[in-house]
Design brief:
Two copies of one chain form a homodimer. Chain A contains 26 helices and 24 strands. Chain A is of the alpha/beta class and 646 residues long. The first copy, chain A, folds into three domains: 3-191, 3-Layer(aba) Sandwich (Rossmann fold), CATH 3.40.50; 215-367, Rossmann fold (3-Layer(aba) Sandwich), CATH 3.40.50.1220; 393-645, 3-Layer(aba) Sandwich (Rossmann fold). In chain A, the strands form five sheets. A seven-stranded mixed sheet of chain A has the order 11-10-9-12-13-14-15, sandwiched between helices.
C-alpha cells in the first residue's frame, strides 16, 4: 500500500496537511514555536494531523533552541513562527543551527499575498511597505529560502525544503502566506520517497536502499579512497579526530567502527563529544586545540597523519577560544560533509556517508604500523577531599562522571558547563548536546526541552517497535532506551535568560535533571576579564529552588548542594538516580571558579602563545600568579541542604 | 568653559569615552544590554564615565525593549550587544523601534579587525568566514549603519550616528571592533554642539538656538503653510488627528497648542495616545480607523479636512488590524516628520518641527468657521454592578480610569491591555507607552523597565534642577514630577515570554505597579480565532504572585483581584496609591473576554466591511451571535484576595 492509502488520505489534501505528513514521514512529530496571527491556520493543521503535536513554547528564542536540539537527536526539527516579530525573535537560535550544522525547517506564517502586493501597512511590518526585509534576513541565515507559490506544484517547494534541511543540515526558510495554507494538492504526491542522503531510521514507507553510485562516481570515490589510504598506510603516527559532522550526518557508528578497526589514537572535538564510544581502548579524549590536555596536544601536533572525520570547520588551522588547531602538521585529511581536503587540495562533491562506507570496506589493518601509544587524558582532582569540603568545579565534574549512565543525554550551557563536561569520560551511548561554536548564552534550557521531547518520542516508539534504531545508526534494545535520562547543566546567568522554558517541561510532564551551577553570574567572562569591573558579570541572586512551584509543578524534587558530601550523598541516592520527576539541583560554586580544563590550559596559553594580540582577553586576562589567589577563594553562602518532594 | 574643560577631560580620550560623553550630553545615562566577550572593554568605559550606568539586563530581547521605551521618554536610547549572538537576539526589539520611529543607538562589540580580515573562525560566527552577515542584517533595520574606522576622525562616526538616531528617530547600527575601543581622539571635539533637529531639553553645554532658516527655505515653508491654511480656512468640518511623530520629535506641546487654538475636533491615534492633554474640551478620543467609536469614525470619515500631525504611516489610506483609515475623504493633510502630503502631492524636506512652529504663528482663528460638534467617546459600562460581581475587561478599564493620576506613565502590552487602554480618558500629562504598530508580544515588561530608569533619572535631575522640562517640551514642577508613577498592564502570555526583566527592576529598587491580566493565555488571538483549536492559545498556569520572592525582592506587595469589589477596594486604598514599593496585582479575567473597544467594533466590522478577504481571521472569526455566548462566560477560579507586604 502507498503512504496515502495506508493513512487513508483523501485524494486532495491541503498543502499544510501535506507538509505535516512529510514531517511525520521523517519522524518529526513535535513542532516548536509560539502562536501568532499569521501562523494560526497552519497550527490548526498540526493539531489535525495524527501523531503530530505543537510544543507551545513559553518564549520564541527558546523554541528555536528546542528545535535545534530536537534536530540533533532526530535529524530534523521544525519551527513555526509568525511574520516579522516571530521570525526575528528566533534568529539567534536559527543562526546557531546554521553555525553548528543542524537541519531545521523554519516555517514562517506570512500575511496574505494581496496585502503584500499592495504593500498595505499591516502590523508586524517595519511600516515602510517593505515585505521582503525579513525574507532577505532569513535567506542570509539559511541554506535555502522559499516562499510557497500558489501553483499546483507547491508541494515540490515543500519537498525541496524538507530535503535541503535534512541533507544540508542547515536551516531552511519556508514562508507560507496565510491565504495559501489551504491550497489543495494530490495526496498521492506523498508516495514519492524523499530524496535523502542519509537513510532515515524510521521511514517505513519511505525507505530506500543505499544510494547506488554511477560507474563514474564509483571511480571517483575509489580514486580518492586510494589516496586517503595511501597516506594512512605511510603514516608513522596517525590520529583520528571526530567532529560533529558525523553526528549530523548520522555516521557515528561508521566512525566508531573505523576507530576500532584502525586502533589509531582517537579524539573528539568539543562539538563531536558523545559521537563515539569513549570506552574504546584507543579513545584518547577531547581535542580542543591549544586548550587540549598537553598529552592530547602533543599527539595531534606531532602526528604525521591527522584524519578529521565529519569536519565542520572550513579551515582546520584556525584559532578560536574553543577550537585552536595550531597544528604545524601538514599531513591533514579533512573529511567534510560534502568534500574532502588532503593537504591543500580540495575534492568537491564527495559525501561523507559514502567515504565512510568505503573506508570501512577497503581499509586493510595489516598495512598499518601498529606502534601507537595511548594516554589517559581525563582530569582527576589533585587530591581526595573530605565530605565537608566546599565545592569547586574541579571536583564537581569528577564526581558527576561516576553518576552518568549509558544512554544519558547531557545538555550543557556555554561557559563553565561546556568546559567542565569535556574533561570527563562518558559512558557508552552517552549523547552530548551543546553549542561550542555559536555559543549563545541561554541555549541549554530550550535545548534540554527539545531533547526531552525527542526522548519521549523514542520511548513511545519503543512501545510499538521491538528493534529501535537511534539517529546515530545504532540499534538498541527497549530497556536501554527507557533508561535514557536527560541531564542539563546550566549556570545562573544563562538560567535567568531563558528559564521560562522549564514551564513548558512541566506542562508536558517531562522529567529532566536540571543542575544549576550558581556562581553568581557570568564566571567564565569574569575569569577572562578579571581586571575589568566585575559588577557587570553579576546577576540578581534568585531563590532558584522555588521556581517549580511558580510554574505549577506537582511532581518534583529540589536540592541545594554546597559541600562535596552533599554531592556524594545525592549521587549515591538510589531514588535520585531514577528520572521519575523533574529535578532542580542548585550547586553552589565560588564566583571566580572555572573548570580546570579552562584554568590550566589558559595559563599555558598565556605564557606560550602569540595568538591574536588585539583580542581584549589578551590584554585583560589575569597573570598566572593571580590564579593561585583565585583558587583560594571559598564559596559564599552557608551550608544548606533541602529536599522538597511532593 | 567648554564641555571638555567643565568635565576636566584630558586632551586625549578614548573613542569609547568620547561616545559615553556624547550620550551624556544628550542626557542618555542608562545603557542597556548584556555583557559579551566582544563588548566588555566598552562596558568598562561606561562604568568609568561619571553619571552613566549599565542596566545589566536579564535577557537580551528585553534589554532592547527597555532601550526603546527609555528613548520614548528621553529622545534617545543606547543598547550595547555583542557580535552575532547578542545583536541577533535584540533584532525584534530594534525592528520595533524602526517600525514605531524610536531613536536608538545600537552598539555592537565586534571581534578584532585582524580576525575579521583573516576570516578566522571565531565563535559567535556562522562558521563560514562571513563577518558581514550580521552587519548586512543590522543595516536592513537601521536608518544608518557604520563600523568604526581606525582613523583619527572616528569621532565623526560617533557624532554622525548619534545625530542620525536622534534626528531620524530610527535605530542606528554602530559596530566597534574590540581593538578600536581604546583609539584616542581629542576631547575638544566634544565641544562642538551636535547637529540636532530638536533642541535637547537638557543639553546645558550643547544647547543651540532654533534653527535659522535660509531665505529660500523661509519662502518654501511659507508657501506650504499658506496652502495648508487655505485648505483649513475653506473647510466646513475640519478635524485634527495626532499621531506618534509629535512625540518622537518632541512637539507635543505645539500640537496641543494648535488643538486649543483651532478648537477643531481632535483625536489621537493609538500610537499617539498620551501626546496631548485629553481634557482639552475639543479632544474627542482615539481614532483607530474602522475600529473607532462610531461617532469618531463618522466625524473623521465625513471631514472635509483631516489634518494629521506627526503622521507615521506612509499611507494614510491603509488597512491594518490596529489602524484602519478607510476615509473616503480626499481632503487630507499629512504632516510627516520630514515631509508633508496634501491630497496626492508630496512636499519633501519639510520638517515637522518647523511646520508646527509656523502653523502656530500664522493660523488666524477668525478665519475658520466655528460650528464644531463634539462628542463623548469614552466607553462606560452598560450597567452599574455590585461589588461581588466577577470582573470583565469592560469594567476593569473603567475603574482604572478613576485611579490614574496626572503624570502617570502607563505601559501596555499588545493584546487586551492595548485595546483596553485606548477606551479611557487619561488625566493631563499622562504618558502612554505601547507598540501598536510592531506589536511584539512581551514588549511591555522590558519597556516598563526602560520607563522606570528614565523616570528615576528625571527625579534625580529634579533634585538639582528647579525647572525641569519633559521630553514633550512641557515644563513641570518638582512635586508633580516626584508623583510620576509607572504602571504596567500585561497579559499572562506576554508575562511568561519576558518576566525575568522584573528581576532587573528589583535589582535597581524600582517601584512599578504591575497589573497582570490573567486570562489563561492569548485571549485576543483566541477571540480572533475561536473556531480553531483553542489549546494553542493556552499557557501553563503559574503562581504569578510568588515571583517577587524568587527574584529576591524585599519591599513589595502582591494582590489578587477577582471581583469588582476587590478592584474598587484596591483603588480606594490610600497606601496603594503611593508607589513606594514594587507591586504585582493579578487580575482574574474570563479567558474569552476582550475589551469592549475590540468586541463591539469587531462585530460592526464583520457585518459592514469588505476588507482583505484572504486574512484567516475573516474566515475564522465568530459570528455576532456567538459573542453573546462568550459574554456569558464567567471567570474560573474562586474568589481570593491576598496581600503580602514585607
Amino acid at each position: 500500500m502507498t503512504y496515502a492509502e495506508l493513512n487513508r488520505l483523501p485524494e486532495r489534501i491541503s498543502i499544510a496537511d501535506y507538509l505535516c505528513h512529510r514531517l511525520r514521514q521523517l519522524n518529526v512529530r513535535t513542532i516548536f514555536g509560539l502562536p501568532g496571527e499569521f501562523n494560526m491556520p497552519l497550527l490548526d493543521r498540526i493539531y489535525a494531523t495524527d501523531g503530530m503535536r505543537w510544543a507551545g513554547n513559553a518564549n520564541e528564542l527558546n523554541s528555536a533552541y528546542a528545535c535545534d536540539a530536537y534536530s540533533r537527536m532526530k535529524g530534523l526539527g521544525c519551527l513555526v513562527t509568525t511574520f516579522g516579530v516571530g521570525e526575528l525573535s528566533v534568529l539567534t537560535g536559527v543562526a546557531g543551527s546554521y553555525a553548528e550544522h543542524v537541519g531545521i525547517l523554519h516555517i514562517i506564517g506570512m500575511p496574505p499575498t494581496s496585502a503584500q502586493t499592495k504593500q498595505l501597512l499591516l502590523h508586524h511590518t517595519l511600516g515602510n511597505g517593505d515585505y521582503n526585509v525579513f525574507y532577505r534576513i532569513g535567506s542570509d541565515i539559511a541554506c535555502h529560502a522559499q516562499i510557497l507559490s500558489d501553483s499546483e506544484f507547491c508541494f515540490q517547494h515543500v519537498d525541496n525544503c524538507v530535503e535541503m534541511a535534512w541533507n544540508e543540515q542547515k536551516p531552511v526558510y519556508l514562508g507560507i502566506p496565510v491565504n495559501r495554507v489551504h491550497m489543495m494538492v494530490n495526496s498521492s504526491c506523498l508516495n514519492r520517497p524523499l530524496n535523502l542522503d542519509t537513510i532515515n531510521f524510521k521511514s517505513d514507507t519511505n525507505a530506500h536502499d543505499n544510494v547506488i553510485l554511477s560507474e563514474e562516481a564509483e571511480y571517483k570515490y575509489d580514486e580518492l579512497i586510494g589516496m586517503i589510504l595511501k597516506k594512512i598506510y605511510a603514516s608513522e603516527r596517525p590520529v583520528i579526530v571526530v567532529d560533529a559532522g558525523v553526528i549530523r550526518h548520522q555516521i557515528t557508528k561508521e566512525a566508531e567502527d573505523f576507530i576500532k578497526l584502525t586502533k589509531f589514537p582517537s579524539f573528539v572535538t568539543p562539538m563531536g563529544k558523545g559521537s563515539v564510544n569513549e570506552n574504546v581502548p584507543n579513545f584518547d579524549g577531547v581535542f580542543t586545540g591549544s586548550l587540549s590536555n598537553p598529552n592530547v596536544k602533543e599527539l595531534v601536533d606531532n602526528s604525521d597523519c591527522v584524519l578529521v572525520l565529519g569536519c565542520l570547520l572550513a579551515e582546520f588551522s584556525t584559532s578560536t577560544f574553543h577550537f585552536y588547531y595550531r597544528t604545524k602538521n601538514k599531513n591533514k585529511i579533512l573529511v567534510f560533509s560534502k568534500s574532502v581536503k588532503i593537504k591543500n587540495l580540495t575534492f568537491p562533491d564527495m559525501k561523507v556517508e559514502i567515504i565512510m562506507e568505503k573506508l570501512l570496506q577497503k581499509y586493510d589493518p595489516s598495512r598499518t604500523k601498529r606502534n601507537f601509544s595511548h594516554i589517559d587524558t581525563i582530569n582527576v582532582p589533585r587530591q581526595t577531599l573530605s565530605n565537608d569540603h566546599l565545592l569547586k568545579q574541579e571536583w564537581v565534574w569528577h564526581e558527576f562522571s561516576n553518576w552518568f549512565k549509558p544512554g544519558d543525554v547531557i545538555v550543557t550551557e556555554v561557559g563553565s558547563s561546556a568546559f567542565g563536561i569535556i574533561q570527563i569520560k562518558f559512558p557508552p551511548r552517552t549523547q552530548s548536546i551543546s553549542q561550542p561554536m555559536w555559543g549563545s548564552s541561554g541555549y541549554s534550557i530550550g535545548a534540554c526541552l527539545g531533547v526531552l521531547f525527542a526522548i519521549e518520542e523514542f520511548k513511545e516508539e519503543a512501545g510499538v517497535t521491538s528493534n529501535l534504531s537511534l539517529p546515530n545508526g545504532e540499534t538498541i534494545n527497549l530497556k536501554n532506551l527507557q533508561d535514557r535520562r536527560v541531564i542539563l547543566f546550566v549556570g545562573d546567568g544563562a538560567f535567568q535568560i531563558a528559564m521560562q522554558e522549564i514551564s513548558t517541561m512541566i506542562r508536558w510532564d517531562l522529567t529532566p535533571y536540571i543542575f544549576l551551577l550558581n556562581n553568581e553570574g557570568y564566571s567564565v567572562d569574569r575569569f577572562m576579564n578579571n581586571k575589568s569591573n566585575l559588577s557587570k558579570f553579576d546577576v540578581q541572586p534568585w531563590k532558584y529552588l522555588n521556581i517549580f512551584k511558580i510554574f505549577g509543578a506537582l511532581n518534583y524534587e529540589t536540592r541545594k548542594i554546597v559541600t562535596l558530601g552533599d554531592l556524594r550523598e545525592m549521587i549515591a541516592d538510589e531514588n535520585f538516580n531514577v528520572d521519575d520527576k523533574i529535578r532542580l539541583v542548585e550547586i553552589i560554586l565560588p564566583s571566580t571558579d572555572v573548570p580546570p580544563a579552562l584554568l590550566e590550559k589558559w595559563i599555558r596559553e598565556r605564557t606560550q602563545s602569540k595568538v591574536i594580540k588585539e583580542s581584549p582577553r589578551f590584554f585583560d586576562t589575569p597573570e598566572s600568579s593571580e590564579f593561585s589567589e583565585m583558587e583560594e577563594l571559598t564559596p559564599r553562602g552557608s551550608k544548606h541542604n533541602s529536599i522538597i518532594s511532593l
